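Handout, section B. The chain below has 210 residues.
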Amino acid sequence: MCGRYSVLTEDEIIEIRKILQELSLRIVKDEFEQYDKEPCEICPTDHAPVIIRNNEGVSFESLKWGFTKWDGSGVIINARCETIETKSMFSTLTKAGRCVVPASEFFEWEKVGKKKKKHYAKDKDGNILFFAGLYRNTEDGREFVIITKEATGDMARIHDRLPVILRVNQIEPWLCGELTADDISNLEFNVSVFPCNVDGECEQLSFDFT
């Protein structure tokens, strides 16, 4: 799963605008023109930047992370790529509710005995990460979930799931519906992972997200 990630810096917001322009995706709505948020971790129910496709271009909006459960008992923050086209909650959104969630890094916890050890993962070259996601409209505003896939290789030692990470040239195909659930389940992406101890010191590891 993906249960927490880092919000973007002001420089990264500017970089995302440049990337969208280079992809010839016109930004028709931008809620971050006066972006001044300090770097911090995004948790479920927080609002965060999300890219949405519309008929005229793309919108860069602030959405709440997590679909509110029908009984109000909590939120659903992830959707498994293996079932997004068959589960009723997500199947219609794969056609008209796709989004991209940019992030600086994301976090996972490895079970070590009875304890959990926190790790954070970044693009190995320091680039922005782009997660595949789904969003929906509600009476209280728009909500989004991050799509996950099965973890393999070294990542499987830490957790059994990881977010689906898109390359820059896969952003538009995902938003437009060209990439299927099967396609994104097979995407590969290289990241660096840092396991942190209780003192905040990290030992860098590198592996492929496949």
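Note. The chain has one domain: 4-106+128-186. Compare this with the example in section A.
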